[in-house]
Write a structure and sequence with these properties.
This protein has 152 residues and is α+β, with helices and mostly antiparallel strands. It has 6 helices and 6 strands. A hairpin with a 5-residue loop joins strand 5 and strand 6. About 20% of the residues have low confidence.
């Protein structure tokens, strides 16, 4: 086995074990790293939409990465605010696929919840037919976050 192949295998194993991407070797294959990871420590460095986009694209290989869509961001933000105001977690009447959640503390937390869900959330994130995504979040009067992701 060549040294390069061994290196690639080691990087892939470390990525799956430690949950971080080594973009130095995979810049052409994977989205650019936007978040700081330090063995489970989550550090938010960008807007929540960019952080969620990175997390979503981290489980999708190019050319199947998602792009942020301003219209979907607006729709998702509006719905997150509606759920927070109503104090009710429910799907909107959107014609697109949608993930919703409440009471997750940050982007990594809600993403992990969606990826661990058995209710279709993971499938929405990984579905290659979706090319665009929008994200919204709103904090209610009790300090809980309400989250929405819309895919098309």
């Amino acid at each position: 086995m060549s040294l390069r192949l061994i290196l690639v295998v080691l990087i892939l194993v470390s990525t799956s074990i430690f949950g971080f991407a080594c973009t130095k070797f995979f810049e052409a294959e994977r989205p650019k790293l936007h978040l700081g990871y330090s063995f489970g420590e989550y550090k938010c460095t960008n807007s929540f939409e960019e952080n969620l986009l990175y997390l979503h694209n981290s489980v999708r290989l190019r050319p199947y990465t998602l792009e942020l869509d301003d219209e979907l961001n607006s729709e998702a933000q509006w719905w997150a605010e509606q759920m927070a105001d109503m104090q009710e977690l429910r799907h909107s009447n959107t014609k697109h696929a949608e993930n919703i959640a409440m009471n997750y503390k940050d982007e990594k937390d809600v993403f992990d919840g969606w990826m661990g869900s058995t209710m279709g959330h993971r499938e929405n994130i990984k579905d290659r037919k979706f090319k665009h995504v929008g994200f919204g979040r709103a904090k209610d009067s009790q300090g809980r976050w309400w989250w929405c992701a819309i895919f098309k």
